[in-house]
Write a structure and sequence with these properties.
CATH superfamily of one domain: TonB
Largest sheet: 3 strands, antiparallel
Number of strands: 7
Number of helices: 4
Radius of gyration: 80 Å
CATH class of one domain: Alpha Beta
Strand content: 15-25%
Shape: elongated
Low-confidence stretches: none
């Protein structure tokens, strides 16, 4: 359209020049530098097609929800006991009677020698020990019974010679006699120790 307008204007100008009597030279001067330019007419952008009509949306018919019956469960019955049991009153227990304290027993009186036989003589020296010249001291422990006789005898310290130790206890059990120890008027056993010396007088 612009090119058509330009061409029309040129025709109008040329006609006007001829009418006004312009010189042909002037016309040539005008016409010679004129160049025809083919201007391509730009095609207008295609129009966007109209949007399609909205489709009819089918609305489903209203269906009421089914009635739901909720079974109400019966809550369990809770029984609370408000009564607090009373504690039993403390029972009075009388204290146990004190145990009777036994009176300390009186110390027994010691046994005493009965007669003069509670000694060792040269005749009591064993013959074998005499020939072997065995000498020494035997310490013995012996128990005096309630009848005054020696009921037991043992060697506490040896003389170094078994014959002398054995002879000491044999003689004490066989020959020694005592008045028994007494406590509260009753005879009681007593244990004592005594050294027995074995000495050869000939030496």
């Amino acid at each position: 359209m612009i090119s058509l307008g330009v061409v029309a204007l040129l025709h109008v100008g040329l006609g006007y020049a001829f009418i006004t009597g312009l010189a042909l030279k002037a016309v040539k001067a005008i016409v010679q530098p004129l160049e025809t330019v083919n201007v391509k007419e730009e095609k207008p952008p295609p129009e966007e097609p109209p949007p399609p009509p909205p489709k009819d949306v089918e609305i489903p018919p209203y269906v009421p929800p089914p009635e739901v019956t909720v079974a109400q469960s019966t809550a369990p019955t809770i029984t609370t006991q408000t009564a607090v049991p009373q504690p039993e009153p403390p029972k009075f227990v009388p204290p146990a009677p004190p145990q009777p304290v036994e009176a300390p027993k009186a110390a027994p009186t010691a046994a005493t020698d009965k007669g003069r036989g509670n000694t060792m003589t040269d005749d009591d020296f064993p013959d074998a020990s005499r020939r072997a010249e065995e000498q020494g001291t035997t310490r013995v422990s012996f128990t005096i019974g309630t009848d005054g006789k020696v009921s037991a005898c043992s060697t506490v310290q040896s003389s170094g010679f078994p014959r002398l130790d054995d002879a000491a206890c044999k003689i004490i059990i066989r020959r020694w006699r005592f008045n028994p120890a007494m406590r509260d008027g009753q005879p009681v056993p007593e244990t004592r120790q005594r050294p027995i010396r074995w000495v050869l007088k000939n030496n």
